[in-house]
Amino acid sequence: MTAEQLLSFLVIGVMMVFFIWDRFRYDIVACSALMLAIAVGVVPFDNAFDGFSDDIVIIVGSALIVSAGVARSGIVDAAIQRFLPDLQSVRAQLALLVVTVTVLSAFIKNIGALAIMIPVAFQFARRSKVQPSVFLMPMAFGSLIGGLMTQVGTSPNVVVSRMREQLTGESFSMFDFTPVGASLALVGAGFLLFAYRLVPERKSQQVAMHNAIEITDYTAEAVATSGSPAIGKPVSNLVKIGDGGAVVIAIFRRGTHLAPLPDVVIEPDDILLLEGGPAALDRIVSQAKLKIARDRLPPTGGDKGRAEIEAIEAVIASGSPLIGMSAERLALFNNHNINLLAVSRQGERLKQRLGSIRLQAGDIVVLQGAREELPPFLQDFGCLPLAQREILLGTIRRGTLPLVVLALAMGTTAVGLLPVQIAFFAAALAMVIFRVIPLRDVYRAVDGPILVMLAALIPVSDSLRTTGGSDLIAGWLSSIAVGLPPAGALTLMLVAAMAVTPFLNNAATVLVMAPIATSFAAALDYRPDAFLMAVAIGAGSDFLTPIGHQCNTLVMGPGGYRFSDYPRLGLPLSIVMILVAVPMLMWVWPLR
Prior knowledge:
Elements lengths: L2 H19 L4 H15 L14 H19 L1 H9 L6 H16 L4 H19 L4 H14 L8 H14 L9 H18 L9 H8 L5 E7 L10 H7 L4 E8 L2 E3 L11 E7 L1 H10 L3 E2 L16 E8 L10 H4 L1 H5 L2 E6 L19 E7 L3 H7 L2 E3 L15 H14 L5 H14 L5 H7 L2 H19 L2 H13 L4 H19 L1 H18 L5 H11 L10 H10 L5 H24 L4
Antiparallel strand pairs: 1-4, 1-5, 1-7, 2-3, 2-4, 6-8, 6-9, 7-8
Helix pairs in contact: 1-2, 1-19, 2-19, 3-6, 3-16, 3-17, 3-19, 3-24, 5-6, 5-7, 5-9, 6-7, 6-24, 7-9, 7-24, 8-22, 8-23, 9-25, 16-17, 20-22, 21-22, 21-23, 21-25, 22-23, 23-25
């Protein structure tokens, strides 16, 4: 072992210790490891920041934006309400998520399948009052397992097929992976449905901040116009859309105040007074196609400014000129281009029309206006903005457009028209161009610490290859495998690929391990197919870290996971995969 190889192993070993210790945030650990690797000479100066242009960073960042666009569209909420209105059990919800992601990942890029379903996981988490972390890691692992079923499901399968063609003259076909892969998917998905409790519930920073300032008793006003699907249906049907998070507290019909009994049928131009949390109110307004704020939009200076309309929560401070005034008396919209969307008053249910409520000190209001006009209004009228969180109530939606953009991205990658990084970057850009996500929210959707961690780790991990450390590992494996029985040798190849892939990335693992597997099989007079398949399965089954595959990285921030959470579920899952894969490989791909 050379000095450079020893130093590379040492840097990676120290980094892993700090990751598991979890005393410092993961991006700080990764950047420190990069600086240490540069200091000891295993990462050249010229290659120190190559990770920031790596495809994996682009894919993860773009997928986060695309997923946020799908979530903002409201179409996921509508689909769940229409097709799965009564799915309340956490295990049933998890089964739907894991099975869907696993099956989709067999035919489309697994990160695309995962991006589609992440907003569904958040919706289920809200419905079941659990943390999204309950769903996200099992979904990420399900996407990895599903990718094992076909040649196009994951990069290692594509690479190992090309390697087999180079080494033996014949490539694997599309469904050569299916018998073993489907068995692993069936057993693995079943295991996840029962073992998901091994991962502790974590709160992401975003969810924790949302809960810290959660307000559940806003009063808002909406109108049932002629195009609303709520017309002709009872109030109980409208309330059901909010999943219990909002209620109708009054109905105003042609100047008459009606009690909102569950069987009262909604008619055109009914004015509905709603009470609940912002998310539930938004679901009711968007899915029932109600008109809020009397259909008034602040002037925006043309199409360019429309994306700059936003809603903000603020507290009316003591001494505010708004105290004792109502929105109608102030002519809030006519004089200030500001819409009052909702009001919350602690300990009191407000039953008046929104515009006639006399505001008091301590009231919390949701105001909508042009972004540049809101700050001076808040300052002039003594309102203190709350910590910023996403308020979708009253925002413009783009319907099915986000799903169309995502489908085009996945379709172009599936047929080989575009590489995945180009397709997803284009999809993320389309989300911005078509105003699915306002410009101000784009960088909020991208999880900066995750991307920095990935970018810093790529050169550190690559030092194993550049210093010859990966070749050294390969030599050790070959010397050990010579004395093992067939099943033992096959197991060693599978375990080695699983262990190496977090540091080499899955495609590089196949490039390093496939020639070793082939030459080892030839030395023992075995057919190479089972060993090549073992390398592909091991390289595509990184369940131990958040850094070996972009799907694991994608859920780390939204799930609030720690580095040490992954092996809690990933290690037993890896053992299950090994126990199933080895006998299946020997049966489907005989060694002699």
